[in-house]
From TrEMBL:
GO terms for biological process: iron-sulfur cluster assembly. Residues 36-144 form the GCVT N-terminal domain. This is Folate-binding protein YgfZ. Signal peptide: none annotated.
Amino acid sequence: MANLIEAWLEAQGARKVDGEWLGAKEGDDAGLCAPLAHFALYRIDGEDAEAFLQGQLSNDVRQLDGARAQYTTYSNAKGRMLANMLLWRDGDGFFMLLAADLAEQVVRRLRMFVLRSRVNFQAADTLPLLLDEPGAERLLAGLDLAMPANAMQQTGAAGVTAIRLPHAGVLVVARDGDDSRLSSALENSKIGVAGRNWADGRFVASGFAWVVQATQEAFVPQMANMELLDAVNFRKGCYPGQEIVARMQYLGKTKRRLFRVYSAAPLAPGMPLQGAESPETEIGQVAYAAELPDQGCEALVVVMVSAWEKGIICPSVDSVLTRLQLPYEIPDLDN
């Protein structure tokens, strides 16, 4: 049960406020972990689960073999993302991780299209954890579980799954809803506990913007660099919005892209962005954000590629944005 992990968090001095965990202490050289309470985890199984997901999501579900996970997206008929998620195979089913504030709505919509297919959705009773490299090495060693070596590699044993997320850290999940073995390993690990901002900061640094309620239907996958993170397979066949996504890929240049930025003032998903010399024109919006420990904020923003020539501001907080490096190249840039 997830309450065993929550009991460990409380024992470390972490506090749960408004459904989110506040970090308690640093782990010195032992590393850090953060509970992902702002995410939801679902198990999807049934005889037709693979075929159903293959017809709904942008990535090729058939490539999931229990050794590799994938990012994927779920769009409306216009190609705009309703959600993006992490998906992996587990035995005869799948697990799907997505933002909690839109999870019930997205799962409800997916269920509408099940019809006579034999597919089941069940919320998982476990609390996912994101760990940095030292923390993951220490925890997985205590579980006798191999450390995933490559991006999206998946390892698992005795009810625990570990997945290396590109440039973000290692996700660890007690996959069967029994957290006893994982909570015991946590007690022996001496790992420190971080909060939501630490976890979100790692996602921002990785260049992956989770779709949340404030950004639903705001972006076609390419605008958020989803294909650069292997969340879109252009050879897999049909899914909602596939024609729009394919047309943008093969027949035109993506005029808006996702960038990593620094702001002296806090940013939030959905905030509009404007050009520094044309404040009357909206050129994009904040996609994902994380406050820094000392001051300021790092965020992922989707804006017109050409807008950087004259600068970008967020009028909601009167802040000029400074562009930062992403861990991957954006092909549509001239420089």
